[in-house]
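User: what does the whole thing look like in 3D?
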Amino acid sequence: MSVLVYTENWDGKFKKLSYELVSYAHAIAGMLDTETVAVSVGDVSDTELTALGKYGASRVLSVQDARLSQLVNQAYASVLYQAAIRENAQVVVMANNFTGKAVAPRLSVKLKAGVGAGVAGLPLSVEPFTIHKKAFNGKAFATIVIKSPVRILTLLQNSFGVKETGGVAAIEEFLPDLAEHDFRTSVEEVSKITGKILLTDAEVVVSGGRGMKGPENWAPLEELARVLGAATACSRPVSDEGWRPHEEHTGQTGKIIAPNLYMAFGISGAIQHLAGVSSSKCIVAINKDPDAPIFEAADYGIVGDAMKVLPEMIAAVREMKGE
Amino acid sequence: MKILICMSNVPDTTTKVRFKDGNTVFDTTGVQWIINPWDELALTRALQLKEEPGSGIEKVTVITVGLADVEPTIRKALAIGADDAIRVNSQATDAYDVARQIAEAIRSEGYDLIMCGIESSDYNNSMVGGMISEFLDIPSVSSVSSVTVENGRFKVKREIDGGKETLSVTAPFVAIVQKGIALEPRIPSMRGIMMARTKPLKVVEPVAPEVLVEHIRYELPPAKAKCRMVAEDNVRELVQLLHTEAKII
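Assistant: Here's the predicted 3D structure for the full assembly of 572 residues, as structure tokens:
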């Protein structure tokens, strides 16, 4: 028996997300009184792999297959399926990110395992396997029971945190049996934005809405993001107008994020926008309209002009950080 | 070539969510039902492809799992321009069962491309498309923001963390589509609405249900503590609060 956790790497390195996933899997393994086994795909150094032990993995299955350098949903599902069978997994943990959303549904069918998608906390109980999670775009919570003997959970990034337990993971080479049939999609072209903090990874997010009035006013917002080490985001009208790139759009139809701090400048807080940010640990809203719905969701607020508040906030943060 | 659009019938996005029977059932009283906005965009894109000269796409079908009360939503999809529709006569429950019902209903129909919206705005599962592909043992591409046809082959773009990839994929396959797939959903024309009444809507009986996940209870989120307001001319105080009280910067 085991709890299996898929730890994704980025150019051979794990991220905080990978450690958070292992920490989460290990906590569930504790509830089931079993061990935590990580699965890693691709070229990752031994130091990096054994370090997963620090967060509770007792072993890590390392898969090396050049064909897996691109995400091929079917092949990855096949790898995790074979690992789950080999380790007799009761639970498989993945991130609720691009990869998790691509692979979890396929794995669910292979394992006949019910999925708890986008969970933010530990199961309420393991017998029956009960989960409390958001539903209806964050307008409600649902208590669900997964009835299958194997379950898949996709964890909302930055919702559980990293917990160090100490320890070293043993590395095992794992050679799953993959057929040509598993590789029927291939990547022909990649375009990547580099040197920016990814919105989904950021612990602090500075976001602008229509109240920013135009793309030419984004410089102070980007400057605040820089001094805070934050990522920038925007509301849907802003990306629809082409003021900001689409990948910055947060909300029901854009990215769903859960940073520690979300600062909304000139965003009224339509229900669709809140659906994407309401899991943030702290929300700060700056808006001219005292009746804007964003203040219902916010922890701290200023009724005022974003363009006036921004320079003062940059100065205050600089002063606090001793810059 | 033929395209299938998997459609779910969801409460309008502005619906106030309420529950009944001791918070175990979603209260549908007064709820306006719509096509999941992502499925509607997928349908729009499929129709654009069909209209492209030389794309080789002859037919666009919509399928949904639901009882007779979902038919108005299906008729709307037909009014937008789908050629025909299939309804699997079963109450939609968990993603696994919905995907299985769809896969079984169309297994021998030979669709070249199956499109699903990224998530239905009711239970936020984002799962049905990937599950259908596995039931049918065909490739799937997720986070798809563009589908085009070139010389009888499909090309798709998917959004990855911090970038985009262009893929070639062997049909038949499933595309789970998201933002970018079409800009605005197509609005039904008067003529479309008239024609929708007579377009074929096939009702298929379900296979025996297999439900892995059960929703047992709902609740509304707890009321949030009141927002702490700071004066506009006192931004420094706000930054101090974030540092000392909230301890996040």
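In plain terms: Residues 2-221 of chain B form a domain with the Rossmann fold fold (CATH 3.40.50.620). Helices of chain B lie at 37-51, 71-80, 95-106, 128-136, 190-196, 235-244.
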